[in-house]
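Q: Sequence in, structure out?
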Amino acid sequence: MKLSLYEQETIILYNQAEATAEIYTHDRKLLEKLTRLSQKYPEQVCKKDKHNFTVPKRCVSVREPYSAERRKAASERAKAAGYRPPTPKKGNE
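A: Exactly. Output:
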C-alpha cells in the first residue's frame, strides 16, 4: 500500500533517561542516510527494521534557520572556493 505524502511522516522519540533516540520514518532520503550511517557506525546507529532506527541523542538537533544574508554569504564563499552543486542522478531530474 502506497502512503500519501502526508502519511510519510518521521517521528523522533527520546527521553531524558536514555542516551539514544528512536527514529521512525518513511522519508526516502532520511532512510538512505540512516542506512548508510548504520553500515558505517553499526555500534552507534542501529537499524531495528525497515523504518526504525536507534541513534545517539547527540545526532538529533534543531538549528536556527539561516537568514537570507547568511545564505548569500555562504553561497558566495562556496563559489569563491570553486564548489559546484551536485549533479542530479539519472531518473531524479
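The first helix runs from residue 28 to 40.
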